[in-house]
Structures are given as structure tokens and as C-alpha cells.
Design a protein that fits this description.
With 375 residues, the protein is an alpha+beta fold. It has eleven helices and 16 strands.
């Protein structure tokens, strides 16, 4: 039987070829839609291969409904069919990837592959050609961070260790840049999910790189909430100085998984991009006692295209309170056809999030105190 690492590499390679075909045919069309087409097609391809080759294993995929049965499984494949969908839809960009990793109970990530199709490369945990060994700390280390969400503290950390900083898309692309020696470290703190890091961490760890949370704690996978907000992948000799600098300069703790899910929903109210909103297939929504959503797909479509959301200008004074499976968000919402013609309403939004997806949203919408005075 094919080893788990070889299976991961073969499937990542096949998914990458499919994504290249879809990308070549669709470049120049709507970028968000192209990314979604790639995500869906690659997800179906990967799941079909895994169901055929490892039918008894569980799967956690960014693009599929989260089946909590995985929490009782001894073997779980953690999949990101297209990491870097924004970069995928931009002509000439190669910093997107396919992630496939296997988690085993009591052992962690035991097999992994990261494909970078635009580079014609597949990196796997059973390939020792990129093995890394500790050496002297570079005179000027090179750190790569997220292009869209760089850590607030990265400037101070770079100064502390004498590093230069560059940006790139896709967690897998950044991690593999460290593996190849293009850069010396990858630092992230802007929020990630297990599928963003499982395969990169599996490949990087097997090669001898340091992989941890930014506080130095180990990466933990197949949790009920598949949220891992931060990550450090670096050459082993840089781990201690980077962790010390991050500890000195990093600010507040990252969101919990449930708060991150609620925040993504609220962000979509303004951006009208629900790509990162995780909604259960049968999710429902109620606003001031009126049912306004009967499925996850309907709610997602409304966030992006509903005329009632197009007038939203901004979210202000946002706060969260979490207990158990519940998150309550309170904020002011500015509405208006133009920035100069704005009415504010006060929102209390209750999210029920038992696991890796939002199952219900209940909103109370009231006039704000300022609006009451104006009227």
C-alpha cells in the first residue's frame, strides 16, 4: 500500500494540476468566483481520492462541512484545497498552494505534503532533500509575513534580531520559502485555521525546522475548534531569539476560535465578502424576532449581495463576550448611501457556535442613543 506521505504528495500534485487548468481557463474573470471554483473543484478531487484510498479515515477540510465524528477518529486528514485563493486569481502569482496532512491520535501530524503548482513543486514529509541543521545565526535574518495581515509587532521584532522583512501570500508558500532557504523565518499572528498550517508544519518539522505557536507552545490539531491563530516556522538557531523578541513586543492575545468566527461574520457586513465566514449547512438567522436566513448558503449570499447590507458603512465600538458555546457581539453599525449621510443603529448579535461552524445568529437591532437624540 502507498505510504501516507506518498499518498499526500500524489493527491496534492493531482489537485495542483487541476487548479492550474481551472486557473488558465478562468484568469480575467471575477477573481473571487475563480478562487471559489478552484476551491470547490480541488476539494472534490482530494476528498474523492482519500475516500477511495483511506475510506476509514476522517477528514477536516476548509471547504467541507465539519463532521464532529473526526474528534473520535484516530486518523484525520486535514486539508486546504487551495491556500491563497486571492493570489491564485492574480495573473503571474505563484504564492498559492495545496495542503494535505494526516493527524494521528497520540502522534500529531505524521504525514504531509504541500504543492506549489505554479512552481511545479511538491514538498513532502518523507523527502529529506531539504533537511535543515542548526548553524550560525545569519548576520541579517530574513523574515516573511502575511501580505494582507502582517503582525503588528513585526517591525519591533525585526529590529530586535536585525532582520529584514518581506511579504508573501499563502501560509504554505511562506513555509516552503523557509524550507528552501529563500527566507529564514515565517511569523504569523493574524489568525489561521488548522488547515492553514497542518501540512506546512508537517513538512517543515520533518525537515528539521522549528515549528510552534508564537509563545513557544506546540501546535495542536484536530481540536473541536479548528482555529490556530499564530505560527512561527524558522531555522532552528533562530527559534530562541525570535521567541524572546516576540514575547517582548507582541501585544494582546489572539481571538479564541469562536470569537474569530463571529468576527469574520461581522467583518463581512462591511466588506460584503463572506469567503471566510464559516456557517453550518443548516444555519439560521433571526433579526428582531423575524426569521431572515434558513441555510448557511443563503446567509452567505445575503451578506455578499443582499440590498439591506449594501448600505452598511462601518462597524464601531465592537466588543465580544464568550461563554460556553455562545458569543455575543455588541457594536454600532453605520448605515447610509454615502459617508456623509449616515444613521447609526446599535446591534446585539448572539452566535451559537458548538464546534467549527456558526449554527445560528440572533440579532437585536435598536436605534442608537445618538440617533434617538437626532430624531
Amino acid at each position: 500500500m502507498t505510504s501516507d506521505a506518498r499518498l499526500a504528495a500524489d493527491i496534492a500534485s493531482g489537485a495542483g494540476a487541476l487548479l492550474l487548468d481551472i486557473r488558465d481557463a478562468g484568469l480575467g474573470s471575477d477573481a473571487r468566483e475563480l478562487g471559489r471554483r478552484g476551491d470547490v473543484a480541488a476539494d472534490a478531487y482530494i476528498l474523492g481520492k482519500l475516500f477511495a484510498e483511506r475510506p476509514d479515515d476522517a477528514i477536516l477540510s476548509e471547504e467541507s462541512t465539519d463532521d464532529r465524528a473526526r474528534l473520535e477518529s484516530s486518523r484525520v486528514w486535514i486539508i486546504d484545497p487551495l491556500d491563497g485563493s486571492r493570489e491564485y486569481a492574480i495573473p503571474g502569482r505563484s504564492d498559492w498552494a495545496v495542503h494535505i496532512a494526516l493527524w494521528e491520535r497520540g502522534r500529531g501530524i505524521t504525514a504531509a505534503a504541500v504543492a506549489q503548482p505554479a512552481l511545479g513543486a511538491v514538498y513532502a514529509s518523507d523527502d529529506d532533500s531539504h533537511a535543515v541543521h542548526a548553524a550560525a545565526i545569519p548576520a541579517r535574518p530574513r523574515i516573511v509575513v502575511s501580505e494582507s495581515r502582517p503582525p503588528d509587532f513585526i517591525g519591533a521584532v525585526a529590529t530586535a534580531v536585525g532582520a529584514e522583512v518581506s511579504t508573501m501570500g499563502s501560509a504554505g508558500a511562506k513555509a516552503m520559502a523557509v524550507l528552501r532557504g529563500d527566507v529564514d523565518a515565517y511569523v504569523h499572528s493574524g489568525g489561521q485555521w488548522e488547515w492553514d498550517s497542518a501540512a506546512p508544519v508537517g513538512v517543515a518539522t520533518a525537515a528539521g525546522l522549528h515549528c510552534s505557536r508564537i509563545d513557544g507552545s506546540p501546535m495542536s490539531y484536530n481540536e473541536s475548534h479548528p482555529y490556530l491563530p499564530d505560527l512561527l516556522i524558522c531555522r532552528p538557531e533562530l527559534a530562541e531569539p525570535l521567541l524572546e523578541a516576540i514575547a517582548e513586543h507582541a501585544g494582546d492575545a489572539a481571538d479564541t476560535g469562536r470569537v474569530a468566527m463571529a468576527r469574520a461574520y461581522i467583518d463581512a457586513l462591511v466588506s460584503h465578502d463572506a469567503t471566510k465566514v464559516r456557517l453550518a449547512e443548516n444555519a439560521w438567522r433571526v433579526e428582531n424576532g423575524r426569521r431572515t436566513g434558513e441555510s448557511g448558503q443563503f446567509i452567505r449570499d445575503e451578506l455578499e449581495n443582499g440590498p439591506q447590507y449594501q448600505a452598511i458603512q462601518a462597524v464601531r465600538e465592537l466588543s465580544f463576550h464568550e461563554w460556553g458555546e455562545n458569543v455575543v457581539a455588541r457594536f454600532l453599525l453605520d448605515l447610509g448611501s454615502t459617508p456623509s449621510d449616515v444613521t447609526s443603529v446599535r446591534i446585539t448579535e448572539h452566535f451559537m457556535i458548538p464546534a467549527g461552524e456558526i449554527e445560528s445568529v440572533m440579532a437585536i437591532i435598536e436605534p442608537s442613543a445618538a440617533s434617538d437624540k437626532e430624531s
